[in-house]
Amino acid sequence: MSNEIVYVQRALNNNAALASDSTSQYVLIGRGIGFRAKAGESLRLDESEKTYRLLDSVTKAHYIDMINRVDPKVFDVVSSAIDLAGDLLGALDLSLYVVLADHLAFALKRLQNGITIRNPLLREIKSVFPDEFGAGELMLSYLNASLDQQLPRDEVAFITLHLNAARRGSSVKEPLRDTNAVFRCCV
């Protein structure tokens, strides 16, 4: 990212801040960036580890809401896990950091409440997206080693769909639609 100057509007959590320049708003992600950023303070975009340019008010509200819901520790662990997957898969859409952190935060809450969601398409997802599935298995191992809870193996299928969507630059609905097509074909 460039050394463009932006101005902090507010901290979203310890590791995220909302900032803007004269034409755009950004969510800046980085260890402690929200903790040390004060409203009105200037920052260079390259001071953040991840930068999301918010294009419209619906996108802004959605991303800010998702970031606010995620525990900063979970966000950090998920970000590190995504970085591992990126090493294996190559470039991933930056929205994955927020979207997958939000998904996994809810998965952890369900787990705390004794609710386990099974993915009936686990085998099909593994078959259709073997590279992303392998990266998802690595991520799940990392997440389980780094968090106080153990997410079930079925979570790899959900992670895989998110990874594939991030490789395509699409929503999770597209890889899910592809998997469903394979499932319907073979049943």
Word description of this protein:
- Helices cover 56% and strands 14% of the residues.
- The protein is α+β, with helices and mostly antiparallel strands and 187 residues long.
- The chain has a five-stranded antiparallel beta sheet.
- Strand 2 and strand 3 form a beta hairpin.
- Helix 5 packs across helix 6 (130-146).
Mean pLDDT level: 86
Supply the helix-strand structural class. Answer: alpha+beta
Strand percentage, roughly? Answer: 5-15%
Largest sheet, spatial ordering of strands? 4-1-2-3-5
Assembly classification: single chain
| Structural shape | globular
pLDDT < 50 runs, ≥5 residues: none
Radius of gyration: 17 Å
Can you summarize the main beta sheet? 5 strands, antiparallel
What's the count of strands?
5
Helix content: 55-70%
Brief rundown of the structure:
The protein has 187 residues and is of the alpha+beta class. It is 56% helix and 14% strand.
